[in-house]
Design brief:
Blueprint (H helix, E strand, L loop, with lengths): L1 E10 L4 E3 H5 L6 H8 L3 E3 L6 H16 L8 E5 L10 H9 L5 E5 L5 H14 L5 E9 L17 E11 L7 E4 L7 E2 L25 E2 L1 H22 L7 E6 L4 H10 L11 H4 L6 H11 L8 E8 L3 E8 L1
Parallel strand pairs: 4-5, 4-6, 11-12
Antiparallel strand pairs: 1-7, 2-3, 6-7, 8-13, 9-10, 12-13
Helix pairs in contact: 3-4, 6-7
The structure holds oxa(dethia)-CoA.
Length: 325
């Protein structure tokens, strides 16, 4: 017994900034950003919030699954950038959707968050605790971005993606996840309790940068390129699944060069590694479900296909799961 994804949805802000817009803020260029990251545009919230995007992505996923909100008994939202602390984002989504019978909570595992949300939901379904789950990754990273730091502001974007899981008799694949808190300094952001305005921060204050993301890009890059192929091999081995059986590897969309390096290390063709970060940048826990939804809407997924989901990021955290479509 386990859960199968039976619907997906996504929601991104309508406003977008291209690389030339970023080049007006920091010393960079469209050419540099494209070559080093693959990013061309990123969508940035205006009226939207983490909650509103999560709700809309969730609604679209339920519509896609043909499931009523009243039938959902678990909602998990993965986010590091919500506009609310209390009530949690998942409870706000519950209210928005009218999913009155659901148990709701948020989880925080940065760019590995959607994989962790998936694993959590499947474990509950497998244990017989719940029957139908809605899992969402929603992020407004623009609120945590230092728009004066060219090492980070070129990368990130906002958006949300969601998937509905229903209990069925598909095989249960054991996930593999890891954390290494001692390397957490590579990507940090302190909590801020008093920031109600969505305006850009006052960077003249000496401590202001601490409340925005700070990253050792090279360290994270090296970590991703080494750890992700390893964890993918681990999850395949643990479940006795061969690489040839995998139709797609849906990776967290952080940098096109990272995806290419992982494909190379696994000796797999890039056709198995869909990429959409040119349009959205790195949307942390939203990147995997947005990409999954695009593939689903484009009709590229066929029932029975095995797909690997893999996330990596702050913590440091990383993990991989096998899903059967
Ligand atoms: O979601 C998970 C979290 N994040 C990630 O996965 C990010 C992983 N890291 C990366 O994607 C890359 O490390 C970056 C895109 C952030 C940076 O690319 P890089 O190829 O690692 O560049 P670098 O930091 O090694 O810098 C190379 C040069 C430096 O100049 P010098 O010292 O060689 O003269 C930088 O100052 O490029 C310079 N540079 C830039 N130049 C133009 C750094 N950022 C920029 C920029 N525009 N935006």
């Amino acid at each position: 017994m386990t859960g199968r994804i039976c619907g997906t949805g996504s929601c991104v802000p309508s406003f977008a900034m291209d690389n030339n817009d970023i080049a007006k803020l920091v010393d960079t260029s469209d050419e540099w950003i494209r070559e080093r990251t693959g990013v061309v545009r990123r969508h940035i919230i205006r009226e939207e919030t983490t909650v509103s995007m999560a709700g809309e992505a969730g609604k679209r996923a339920l519509d896609n699954a043909g499931i009523s909100a009243e039938d959902v008994d678990l909602i998990i939202v993965s986010t590091i950038s919500s506009n609310v602390i209390l009530p949690c984002t998942a409870c706000e989504v519950q209210k928005e959707l009218g999913a009155d019978h659901a148990t709701c909570f948020d989880l925080s595992a940065a760019c590995t968050g959607f994989v962790v949300a998936y694993n959590t939901a499947v474990a509950y379904l497998n244990a017989g605790v719940y029957q139908t789950a809605l899992i969402i990754g929603s992020e407004s990273l623009s609120n945590l971005t230092n728009w004066k730091d060219r090492g980070t502001c070129i990368l990130f974007g906002d958006g949300a993606g969601a998937a509905v899981l229903k209990k069925d008799d598909t095989r249960y694949y054991l996930p593999v996840t890891h954390s290494n808190g001692s390397r957490g300094g590579a990507l940090t952001c302190k909590s801020r309790y008093d920031r109600s305005e969505l305006s850009l921060p006052d960077l003249t204050k000496p401590d202001e940068k601490e409340y925005l993301m700070q990253m050792d890009g090279r360290e994270v890059f090296m970590f991703a390129v080494k750890s992700v192929p390893q964890v993918i091999r681990e999850v395949l081995e643990k479940n006795d699944v061969a690489q040839e059986e995998i139709s797609y590897y849906i990776l967290h969309q952080a940098n096109k060069r990272i995806v290419e390096a992982i494909a190379k290390r696994l000796d797999e063709p890039m056709e198995k590694f869909p990429v959409n970060l040119e349009e959205y940048g790195n949307t942390s826990s939203a990147s995997i479900p947005i990409l999954l939804d695009e593939l689903n809407q484009e009709g590229k997924l066929e029932r029975g296909q095995k797909i690997v989901l893999a996330g990596f990021g702050a913590g440091l955290t990383w993990g991989a799961s096998i899903i059967e479509w």
